[in-house]
Design a protein that fits this description.
- The complex is a heterotrimer of chains A (about 400), B (about 130) and C (about 170).
- Chain A is about 65% helix and about 5% strand.
- Chain A has about 400 residues and is mainly α.
- Chain A folds into two domains: about 55 residues; about 280 residues, no CATH class.
- In chain A, helix 1 packs parallel to helix 13 and helix 3 runs antiparallel to helix 5.
- In chain C, about 75% of the residues lie in helices and about 0% in strands.
- Chain C starts with a helix and ends with a helix.
- Classes of the chains: A mainly alpha (about 400), B mainly alpha (about 130), C mainly alpha (about 170).
């Protein structure tokens, strides 16, 4: 097949999956937070609130797209545009799986593999500072300006530990290409532990992983680092003066950035699409077992669900999960389905951690936040990098 | 497998165009959809329901400027770390020493700004500045 | 194809460059400068200098321009008043510009008369690996001296801003 047609096809698949997950992340987050707080979360629109995202989109679409007259129009509109467009680009270098063959066409499960892959992601993320800065400045509102400034200073401060903590796994893998970084994590340690960067000898990157994850929270302006939109002091921070779809743009950009960050963390530290235990131990069959267990759980729970509606619908959910398990049982489908399954499972777990932390931790104070970046994260990341370098030099593979 | 440069960078071009289209769609869409009504109170900058006081265009703390300045310098240092990490397997202990020498000097700078209190955000702000 | 891509991004770079000078508001000038940086990064990429292209964005667009914008906001710089140019500037500006551009293109054409045509993808040694090899062998001294430069810059930045902090 023509390479360009194939690229367009792959881009279409990736962007549709991305947009659907962006829609549903919001639902997942509200549900998880609600259950952490012993609430039910969205429940009215569709079964278990499953149609809530569409209701939200419709609501935001029909809201008044008000543009206050005190704003600097060009920058006011540029900010949400920049936020969304930059947030959607980075996914292009993320590898979801190895090279596969489908209907006689060989291709990689990745849109493109750059040999500056990580730097590309960093370059794009370093530009997203402008979205919040311009939004804050153009709004001509004191809360917005303070929020935008704080956010910009926070993002550049945490970019240093973020990039530094990435340095150590790059050094072990000896490449900036995300595909080669995943391939450097193949195999096992002592036959049990996967050879992922967080375990890989001689320099396990556990510290690097934690530093990266914390910096990722700050880069995406998530709790406990959501100072730019600390509502008890800054109303809504840099997007105070935004409404309707322009407000939704910032929201969407935040979720898209979260997806990018979890995808990069998975790729660099958690072995990307590689399974947690080797194929010889049957890792290809694990997804089928997991889905079957989930299906069994749904059927079991349906018999004692408190609501009669759930008693009727949950067996069908179980049945659907059994069907998915059946698809994963087909050996011919394994090369195509299993690697993306592991990738999405790991990224999904990290996404859950993002939400979990939001449901658990309070917010930092701004001076603590900045001091934490410079006086703790930066030195720790640097020490980690040089410790890794020393270990790699002393115990070359 | 794509091997030539145009083939490697074509998907990026596609993705950038898709991203721009979606982003532009959202900004333009909000202008097309929904009715707009202007009232005097709605048009004011939001200050928790009060009538806005003073100007937004005030000067703010020099700390933000300093952080950006220090960030540039460490960012430049960081840029050197990436090619170093990639070829580190070939350089070995020599690479470690070379980079240690480089970082060592910069770390003295880091020590200096730490001692000078550039990284202390909770210190008293000078009169007349905000944020 | 190569020529089209080059012309598009060169035109963007030049247009943004002109905009930097022409714009009255400093923040609009700053964003035009970001546009120049971005277009230059793409031009680097077209030449095969992948690493340099990424660094151009990370350092110039992502760090230095953030400082510029902070400074513009810090100083609360507003719209510049129009005019203020003396009559020799108005009279000689355009002719001098034409002469300068003509002279530059003449010199470049003479110096690189026998130069090869640049083709996208012909040069592939601009990746991080090749840069790293050169940087830590042949160009080790300049690299190490850079750290002194950075150190001096750190001291300078703190000394300049210290008056404000104390």
């Amino acid at each position: 097949m023509n390479f360009f047609v194939l690229s367009l096809l792959k881009a279409a698949i990736v962007i549709s999956v991305l947009m659907v997950s962006l829609l549903y992340l919001q639902w997942v987050e509200r549900k998880v937070i609600a259950h952490i707080q012993l609430r039910m979360g969205p429940y009215r629109v569709g079964p278990h609130g499953l149609l809530q995202p569409f209701a939200d989109v419709l609501k935001l679409l029909t809201k008044e797209g008000f543009i206050p007259s005190h704003v600097n129009l060009f920058f006011y509109l540029l900010a949400p545009f920049l936020a969304v467009s930059l947030a959607l680009i980075s996914i292009v270098v993320v590898p979801f799986g190895p090279e596969v063959e489908l209907f006689g066409v060989r291709t990689t499960m990745q849109l493109t593999d750059l040999n500056i892959g990580i730097l590309f992601v960093l370059a794009i993320s370093s530009l997203s500072v402008y979205a919040v800065t311009f939004a804050g400045w153009a709004s001509n509102n004191k809360y917005s300006l303070l929020g935008g400034l704080r956010s910009a200073a926070q993002m550049i401060s945490y970019e240093l530990p973020l990039a530094l903590s990435l340095g150590a796994p790059l050094l072990v893998a000896g490449s900036l290409s995300l595909r080669e970084i995943v391939l450097a994590q193949q195999g096992t340690i002592l036959g049990i532990l996967p050879n992922w960067m967080i375990f890989q000898l001689p320099a396990p990157q556990l510290v690097g992983f934690l530093v990266f994850l914390i910096a990722a929270f700050a880069e995406t302006n998530r709790i406990p680092f959501d100072l730019p939109e600390a509502e008890n002091e800054l109303v809504a921070g840099f997007h105070t003066e935004y409404s309707s779809l322009k407000f939704a743009s910032f929201f969407m950009a935040e979720y898209a950035n979260m997806i990018t960050m979890t995808a990069i963390t998975t790729t660099v530290f958690l072995g990307g699409w590689l399974p947690p235990f080797p194929e010889t131990l049957g890792s290809n069959w694990a997804p089928a077992v997991i889905f079957a267990l989930l299906g069994a759980l749904a059927v079991y729970y349906s018999r004692q669900a408190p609501r009669p509606k759930d008693r009727r619908t949950l067996p069908w959910v179980g049945l659907a999960l059994f069907a998915v398990a059946a698809i994963f049982l087909i050996p011919a489908a394994h090369p195509l389905l299993v690697p993306p399954f592991w990738f999405l499972a790991k990224a999904g777990f990290l996404m859950f951690v993002f939400i979990w932390v939001r449901g658990t931790l309070p917010r930092f104070r701004y001076d603590q936040l900045m001091q934490f970046a410079w006086k703790f994260m930066f030195p720790v990341a640097l020490v980690n990098l040089f410790a890794t370098a020393l270990l790699v030099a002393l115990f070359p593979r | 497998m794509p091997s030539s440069y145009p083939e490697i960078y074509f998907p990026i071009l596609v993705q950038v165009l898709i991203a721009i289209a979606i982003a532009a769609g959202m900004v333009v869409g909000s202008w097309l959809l929904g009715k707009r009504v202007r009232t005097r109170a709605k048009d004011m900058p939001y200050e928790s329901g009060m009538v806005p006081v003073g100007s937004t265009r005030e000067r703010f703390s020099v700390k933000f400027y300093l952080v950006a300045m220090v960030f540039i310098l460490f960012d430049v240092e960081l840029v050197f770390l990436y090619p170093w990490a990639v070829v580190y397997g070939e350089l070995g202990l020599y690479g470690f020493l070379v980079m240690f020498l480089f970082i060592d000097l910069i770390l003295w700078g880091f020590y200096y700004i730490w001692k000078k209190g550039v990284l202390d955000w909770s210190r008293e702000e000078p009169a007349g500045s905000q944020a | 194809m190569d020529a089209v891509l080059f012309l598009v991004f060169a035109a963007i770079a030049v247009a943004c460059g002109i905009s930097v000078v022409v714009q009255r508001h400093p923040i609009t000038s700053a964003i035009s400068l970001i546009g120049v940086m971005g277009a230059l990064a793409v031009l680097y990429l077209l030449l095969g200098a992948e690493f340099l292209a990424a660094v151009q964005v990370v350092v110039y667009a992502g760090a230095i321009m953030v400082l510029f914008i902070f400074v513009i906001m810090l100083l609360n710089a507003g719209v510049e008043p129009p005019g203020g140019r003396s009559w020799p500037v108005r009279l000689l500006g355009l002719p001098m510009l034409v002469i300068l551009v003509g002279l530059l293109s003449f010199v470049i054409r003479r110096v690189f008369a026998g130069g090869e045509e640049v083709r996208f993808g012909a040069f592939t040694k601009g990746g991080p690996r090749e840069i790293g090899r050169l940087l830590f062998t042949d160009y080790l001294l300049p690299f190490e001296v850079t750290s002194v430069l950075i150190l001096v810059a750190i001291l300078g930045a703190v000394v300049l801003a210290r008056k404000e902090i104390d």
